Amino acid sequence: MNNISIRHLRAFVEIANLASFTRAANQLNVTQSTLTANIKQLEQQAGLILFDRTTRQVTLTKEGKRFFPVAKRLITDFSLALDDLQAGAEQQRGHIIISTSPTGNSILVPELIKRYNIAHPKIDISIYEAGASEIEQQVLSKFADFGIGGNHTQDAQLEYQPILQDQYGAIMPADHPLAEASSLTWKQLRGEKMLHLSQDNGIRSELELLNKQNVIHYQSSVPTIEASNPNGLGALIRKKVGIAILPALASQVLAFGGLKFVPLTTPVRARALFIVRRKDYTLSPAALNMLQILSQILQQQAEDADQFVTYNALQQTVALD
Q: Looking at per-residue confidence, does 131 or 240 come out higher?
């Protein structure tokens, strides 16, 4: 029945309901000859007679009676599916999934969700906090609509739109001997016990790459002490196990509250945060609108940013595709 369409099903159901070709044609606003042709096509495709026709009445055959509830259900399912598509296009229904780094989740996402929810209260939103590599995998697998994180692998299937850069610095207890400095050089950290986030974290990967390229100069402690998340790293710093190198915004997340951030210079280096998307994935109208709102937030943040952070509004082509 490859050539059967919803038009044929509606013709069949309407005739069955009204027991008349004439009344069904009027109800569907088609000619009786068109309606008759639709039923003939349906019967030919099915290889069965669906109606018994006399000059006085039209009744369903045994096969027609069996098919009738199925046809009604198919029409209902089609209508519901079409309504759902239209609701999604009008942003009256839908589900957006964001995969984000801890920094994005702390600095950008709360305001983004607040504004978006006010504008579109019927859209479901899920937020998953993850490391850089997991963010990329969630976007690649189409689990997440988009990500907010680092450029961890430079995957050719992904598009990375920079949204901010924040300067690296050392984070330490407020009573640490280096905490009173207005800035530090990377070389001044030699001899300090360095704590790290785990290998799958974009910050850790970038720092190790810069160190390997001799762009920055600091020595990792042996043995290595690392934490899989900011909460664990913050707890280690508070216990004075050591200090860590983090970007300015990362140091502002709740996990590092009460600790001191001292910017690093000679050279000044900054971490970049990106919107991560699949190049071949068309975002829903709801997700595209969320990116438009994010761009507005970035523009406003740029006006109030301190000396350690630079914000970039999203390019219009990214938000509007």
A: 240
